[in-house]
Design a protein that fits this description.
By secondary structure, the chain is of the alpha+beta class. The chain is 24% helix and 32% strand. The chain has 5 helices and 8 strands; from the N terminus they run ββαααβββαβαββ. β7 and β8 form a beta hairpin. α4 runs parallel beside α5. The relative contact order is 0.17.
Amino acid sequence: MEMQPIVNQPVIETERFDLRPLRRSDLGLIEMHAGDPRVARNTTSIPHPLPPGTIEAFITRAMGDPRDFDCWAMDGSKTAGAEVMGLITLSRLDRNQSEVGFWVAPAFWNTHLASDSVQALVDANPLNNDTMFATVFQDNPASAKVMTNAGFIYLGDAESYCLARDAAVPTWTYSRKL
């Protein structure tokens, strides 16, 4: 029997779903969703095609201690939904700041899941941050709308490298004081 580490990270509850720490049993669903090119193309860090072991290594890092990010599964099982509908992360930055990152499985697009998840994370502020940042690709206006709906303010343009596209992609950067 393998013992799983206890992740010191809160569960953030909403009426419709919970944001909960990852567990090893999430591997199959995360691999299925993250392996979708529509998901990978809208993130900086998910390669496509997805190499074997990528998600297992990610889950290990997310459950590790110490770690430089916290990751929550968007879990709809409390309302008869899927256990993993997407992921949302907070990556620690200096000066008591974090960067929000998220992806939602295509089956749950246009359901306000991303907006509700970001808002729940901001409201909970589990790292007690002074400021949160987010960067979205300019060809993904739905994610930009998620950020502005959660009270994030546009800061400017930049670009980030996208593994799935193997290219630098123009981005918009947002911040929110907490």
